[in-house]
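As a point of orientation, let us examine one representative protein, giving the amino acid sequence and backbone structure tokens.
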Amino acid sequence: MAKPASKAKLVSEIQTRHKRLEEKIAGIPRDVALKPKTVGAWSVKDTVVHITAWEKTFLTWYNDGLAGKKVDMPDWRIKGTLGAINRKIFEENLSRDLKDILADFTVTFQQILSTVASIQEENIFARGKFDWTGRRTLLDYIWANTAGHYAEHLAAIERMKK
């Protein structure tokens, strides 16, 4: 699906896709959710951590930018940057309890919703509105760290090894 052309549609897609992801995760038994390498190289637990970490990353970028702070953006031109960040997220969260991870998943999603709802529509779609987004729109960053990301990982969970 193409990215939404309105804030209302964006919020709706974020909510709809997250709900599908929540429902899928809720139907997975705890022992299966913890089983390594069922979702590619990760467990369901690892996947939830990953999604939540990228939501938090977006929130940090956005809030730092609003506060006039330097936004600590990775240098995406360097090969392996994304993989290195994802490995770090994975390693830092290995010992976390599933219950804690799921609670964080819920709380962070609510923060995403309230943040996106607070952004003026024209600021979501305007190029160059925020220094830290470069040539991209804020929509590109919101989408990549919410609805677009949810769909990617929902599909992976649906294909998981049992």
Notes: DSSP finds eight helices and no strands in the chain. The mean pLDDT is 95.
